Backbone:
């Protein structure tokens, strides 16, 4: 495929019905190519895309920064909305210019269907009858010049949209949308220089104290292994491994303390925090 002047190749296509099927496909892809960058286009509605992303985050096997997503469903919704606006704009201009333009068609519809709300383009049910104002509406659409959800909407003589710009963005670790490229019908894809904001790190920290890590028992993040022959119980899991790496890198000591409530946060009384969040808020 060649969008504009930039060439890219689609390696795999998979039709899915739910998030579980998408994750199964990604797990198979992970075994085939563990460390390569994977650029995935989710051509689905926003609800399904959200479910897929949430399930991806929950899968430990997919916890690498090699996955890059593009959500086409959100853009499709915006384009559908703008398409309706274009048609309404054209019909509105025709109505203002010729208020009686549709009266004859409405009279015929009323006589055939006993209704004044429908204009049937196929009254004979055998072949499509061209709408008498179709050519006028087509010319008015080509003269459209409005601002929609997807930017400026205007068309050339062939009826193709022109004079518009697409922004390619990525989400940073701070959940900020950062523009990395633009695409125009005139110049194609142009890479932009993103202005990344470096995360601030604490200037200093104490190494002669023991830091507390609060959590709950939940597989695979933190689990408890029974000790053998009277030995103490041991924690293991993703959070334990992560804290070992952090403590070694920073040269600090830490202690794992389980939340008494056994959950991350309370559900009933949001003004009084309990669980892990409550432990953090009280420190």
Residues:
């Amino acid at each position: 495929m060649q969008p504009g002047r930039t060439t890219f190749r689609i390696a795999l296509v998979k039709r899915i019905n739910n998030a579980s099927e998408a994750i199964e496909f990604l797990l198979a892809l992970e075994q085939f190519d563990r460390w390569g960058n994977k650029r995935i286009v989710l051509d689905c509605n926003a609800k399904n895309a959200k479910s897929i992303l949430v399930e991806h985050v929950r899968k430990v096997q997919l916890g690498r920064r090699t996955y890059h997503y593009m959500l086409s469903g959100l853009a499709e919704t915006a384009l559908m909305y703008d398409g309706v606006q274009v048609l309404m704009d054209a019909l509105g201009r025709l109505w203002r210019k010729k208020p009686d333009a549709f009266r004859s068609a409405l009279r015929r519809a009323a006589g055939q269907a006993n209704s004044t709300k429908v204009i049937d383009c196929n009254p004979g049910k055998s072949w499509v009858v061209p709408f008498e104002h179709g050519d006028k509406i087509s010319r008015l659409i080509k003269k459209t010049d409005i601002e929609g959800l997807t930017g400026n909407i205007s068309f050339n003589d062939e009826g193709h949209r022109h004079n518009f710009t697409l922004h390619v963005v990525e989400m940073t670790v701070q959940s900020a949308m950062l523009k990395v490229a633009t695409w125009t019908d005139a110049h194609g894809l142009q890479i932009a220089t993103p202005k990344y904001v470096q995360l601030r790190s604490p200037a200093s920290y104490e190494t002669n104290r023991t830091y507390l890590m609060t959590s709950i028992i939940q597989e695979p993040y933190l689990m408890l292994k029974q000790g053998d022959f009277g030995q103490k119980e041991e924690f293991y899991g993703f959070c334990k491994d992560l804290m070992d790496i952090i403590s070694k890198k920073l040269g600090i000591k830490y202690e794992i303390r389980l939340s008494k409530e056994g959950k991350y946060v309370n559900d009933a009384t949001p003004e009084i925090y309990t669980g892990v969040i409550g432990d953090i808020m009280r420190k």
Remarks:
- The radius of gyration is 29 Å.
- Residues 1-5 have pLDDT under 50 and may be disordered.
